[in-house]
C-alpha cells in the first residue's frame, strides 16, 4: 500500500507537559520524509492564536532556535498548521523547545489534509515528551503500517463505514469512512507485526465483504 500524501499538516493539542490545557510553545517543528529531509518549507504557517507578534506561527519553522511560536493562554482549541504548495509524505516528526519546557506539547494529534479536502488523523501522540526531553528535541517515527481495501455495497456504491476489529479481542480499533469509490485505509497505532484484524463493512442497503478476515497490517511504501 502506498502512504498518503498531504498538502497541509496540522497539530491539534490537548495537553502540555505540565498536564494543563493552555499556552503551547514550540521552537522547532519539523515533519520529515523518508529521506530524513524536512518537508515543511516553501509554504505558509498559521495557528489558532499567537501570544503576540513576536511569537508568530512561522517561528516554529524558521530554523532559528532563538525564536518560537506560542499560543494565547486563553485559547481553548490550540493548533498549528503548515500549508505546502504540493502534497508530501510524512514519515517522522521532530519538536523542540529551548526554554519554558513545561509549555511543550505532551498529547496531540497530527492530521493531514487529503486530496478531497478532509482532515485525516495521521497519528495520536500520548506522552510525547517530558520537560527534560523537549528542550533538546524529540523525534518520533510515524506509524508505517496500515490496513486498506475497497468496500462496496450490493449496488456497487461505496459502503457507509468500515469497522476495524481486533482479531484477538474483537474490540473496535477504528471506524473509517470509505471514499466515493469505496477505497479506505487506516494507519495503525499498534506496530506489532503479527497482529491480526477483522473488517466489517456497513451500508444501508446491505454489504459485500471485499476483504475476508482476518487480515494483517502491511508496510506502507513511498515513491
Q: Tell me the strand percentage band.
A: 35-45%
State the helix count: 1
Over the alpha carbons, how many angstroms does the gyration radius reach?
19 Å
Low-pLDDT windows of residues: none
H-E order? EEEEEEEEEHEEEEEEEE
Strand count, sense and closure of the main sheet?
5 strands, antiparallel
Number of strands: 17
For the termini, the CA-CA separation is 11 Å
Q: Mean pLDDT, rounded to whole units? A: 86
Please describe the topology of this protein:
Layout: E1 6-16, E2 25-26, E3 28-32, E4 44-47, E5 69-70, E6 79-88, E7 92-96, E8 105-113, E9 119-125, H1 131-136, E10 138-141, E11 145-150, E12 161-166, E13 172-176, E14 183-187, E15 196-202, E16 215-216, E17 218-219
Antiparallel strand pairs: 1-6, 1-8, 2-5, 3-7, 4-6, 7-10, 8-9, 11-14, 11-17, 12-13, 12-15, 15-16
Give an overview in words:
This protein is mostly beta strands and 223 residues long. It folds into two domains: 136 residues; 75 residues, Immunoglobulin-like, CATH 2.60.40. 3% of the residues lie in helices and 41% in strands. The strands form five sheets. Strands 4-6-1-8-9 form a five-stranded antiparallel sheet, with no helix packed on it. The protein has a four-stranded antiparallel sheet with strand order 13-12-15-16, with no helix packed on it. A hairpin with a 5-residue loop joins strand 8 and strand 9. It is elongated.
